[in-house]
Design a protein that fits this description.
The protein is built from one helix and six strands. The protein is α+β, with helices and mostly antiparallel strands.
């Protein structure tokens, strides 16, 4: 049985222009958004989200999205 992603979790910050997904820079210089397909992944990213909030002075919010819609298959 193949599992499908039915929900997503994302850490976001808000500024005067609206909300945005926060992310961190990996050791290889690549940017990784703080998102996950299950709560376990979100929990594993929480320490990074807290640090980003501390350094930036912004409130970080964890959001859960539960609607799946296929937009395009590439």
């Amino acid at each position: 049985m193949k599992l499908k992603i039915e929900e997503m979790f994302a850490f976001v910050a808000e500024d005067e222009t609206g909300e945005g997904v926060i992310g961190m820079t990996m050791p290889d210089g690549m940017w990784m958004p703080l998102v996950g397909a299950d709560m376990a992944r979100a929990e594993s990213l929480k320490k990074h989200a807290k640090e980003i909030g501390r350094v930036s002075g912004k409130k970080i919010t964890l959001l859960k999205f539960t609607t799946r819609e296929t937009i395009e298959e590439l």
